[in-house]
Amino acid sequence: MHPQRAPAELLRAAADGDRSAWDALEAAYGPLMWAVARASGLGAADAADVVQGGWLRLLQRLEDIREPERLGSWLATVVRREALQVLREGSRSGVHVLATVEEPEPGAAVLGDDDRQLLWKAVSTMHEPCRTLLQLVAIDLGSRQTAARLGLPIGSVGPTRARCLEKLRTLISSQEMAQ
Amino acid sequence: MIDDEYFLAALRLAAGADPPPAHVAAAAREVYGLRVAGSLTAAPVAEAALTGAGARGDDGSHLVRFVADGLTFDLEVTVGDGLIDVAGQVLPHPGEDTLVDVRTPHLTLSRRISRNGCFAATGVPPGWLSVVCHRPGHAPVQTRWVRIRP
């Protein structure tokens, strides 16, 4: 494991046949990819499938990732788009070619280590019910149990969550602007 | 909101409550064994560019076309009984002694191509699939991975 190696170096080494570099990439980005797949609404089996697809895509792009320092965002974008495709397909049979992703989506930057910590801190400063609701969302408690914990009607969990995420987004933006 | 999934993913990561299962991490590491050194990747041709019945045949088969390095790969995928059959053609004919690998993450079936550039593989498990063309004296050409749902 080489946690100190930069993404560009890991990509180059993996392209040259260094399996340990690939393992280091998996250790660095595997949890992120899984979180994106699950947060997109996929069950465990589909999430596993989509994450594997992300790695297969990376394997074919080892030598031409445009911005290695944004590799995490690129992988997150690949996984999110593929997850949305799986959700669109539902249970229909079919053949789908892995999508081309050249530029990471800007929103994926929030998954970077620094931004993630900032995000978690921001949640702890929010008023109720957002603080508890987002903490429960983070542990995937489910709408029914979340509603029970917060004393909300189950039908209002989704809209409240959306409002809380919007508040969080505003909070993060103002913190980033203040820095 | 368009980026909610990223916010939710970041929250999930920070909470650490749903780490990837060990088999997911293992599958990711095993992907490296599918690396084809020095290969070119064939990109898909848009479905609208396909002729005839388009991307879906009358018999429920699916047609996918890839192009790279002067080669065109036509793959016809038929799903039945939980397994898939792949019938393919590489044009122009890539030459004698060419080998084609039909690959999934767990299985590679090697085929010699016929005089008209055709090959076939049957009973392939669904999931991710790619085809690699090995021509003597040339860099291997592999198709982008496709996901096949039964």
CATH class category of the largest domain in chain A: Mainly Alpha
Average pLDDT of chain A: 90
The SSE string of chain B, one letter per element, is: HHEEEEEEEEEE
How much of the residues of chain A is beta strand, in percent?
under 5%
**Total domain units of chain B:** 1
Provide the CATH top-level class of chain B.
Mainly Beta
Oligomer: heterodimer
Element order, helices and strands of chain A? HHHHEHHHH
Query: From the coordinates shown, what is the CATH architecture of the largest domain in chain A?
Result: Orthogonal Bundle
CATH-level-4 superfamily name of chain B: Immunoglobulins
Notes on the protein architecture:
The complex is a heterodimer of chains A (179) and B (150). With 179 residues, chain A is mainly alpha-helical. Chain A has two domains: 7-104, Rna Polymerase Sigma Factor, Chain: A; 113-178, Arc Repressor Mutant, subunit A (Orthogonal Bundle), CATH 1.10.10. Chain A has eight helices and one strand; from the N terminus they run ααααβαααα. Chain A has helices spanning 7-15, 19-39, 44-59, 71-89, 113-124, 130-138, 143-150, 157-178; one strand at residues 94-97. In chain A, α2 (19-39) crosses α4 (71-89) and α6 (130-138) packs across α8 (157-178). The radius of gyration of chain A is 18 Å and the shape is globular. The two termini of chain A are 33 Å apart. The mean pLDDT of chain A is 90. Chain B is mainly beta and 150 residues long. Chain B has one domain: Immunoglobulins (Immunoglobulin-like), CATH 2.60.40.10. Chain B is built from two helices and ten strands. Chain B has helices spanning 4-15, 22-31; strands spanning 40-44, 62-68, 71-80, 83-91, 99-104, 107-112, 118-124, 127-134, 141-143, 146-149. Chain B is globular and about 60 Å long. At the A-B interface, α2, α3, α4, β1 and α5 of A face α1, α2, β1, β8 and β10 of B.
